[in-house]
Amino acid sequence: MANTWHGEFPWQYLPASKAHPSPGTTPVRTYTPNAYGLHGMAGNVWEWTSDHYAEPQRHPDPAPQACCAPGNPPRNPPRNARVGLPDHGNAAAERFTRRVTKGGSHLCAPNYCR
């Protein structure tokens, strides 16, 4: 088992113990390997699934939003608007089908990342 969030994520945090030495990342091979002989894999990897990703369906008439409320997302963001990625049009989307990914970081608890 890798070092993951302690307790029920994100509502509870238990302090470090001998079983879980620190709340952050830990050195390689801190925990015993799994049945495949791999160390620290829970919560540290992403994997592609065989499912194709589909954009969520948008309602034709979205509920009105307050114009001045902080944090409101744009009403109609571009289809390929993703944080940190440059907009290169739909060239990649036209050539490749996106797949669903699953996984998480060292902060994911087993009950949350499944």
Shape: elongated
The major β-sheet equals: 2 strands, antiparallel
For the CA atoms, what is the radius of gyration? 20 Å
How many distinct beta strands? 2
State the strand order across the main sheet. 1-2
Query: Could you tell me how far the N terminus lies from the C terminus, measured between alpha carbons in angstroms?
Result: 14 Å
Taking pLDDT < 50 over at least 5 consecutive residues as the criterion, the unreliable ranges are 80-85
How do the helices and strands follow one another from N- to C-terminus?
EHEH
Mean pLDDT across the residues is 62
Question: What class would the helix/strand composition place it in?
Answer: little secondary structure
Tally of alpha and pi helices: 2
Strand content: 5-15%
* Helix fraction bin: under 10%
What does this structure look like?
With 114 residues, the chain is largely without helices or strands. It has a domain at 1-53 and 92-114. Helix content is 8%, strand content 11%. The chain is elongated and about 50 Å long. The two termini are 14 Å apart.
Task: Describe the secondary structure blueprint for this structure.
Blueprint: E1 46-52, H1 91-95, E2 99-103, H2 110-113
Antiparallel strand pairs: 1-2
Supply database-style keywords.
elongated, 114 residues, two-stranded antiparallel sheet, 8% helix, little secondary structure
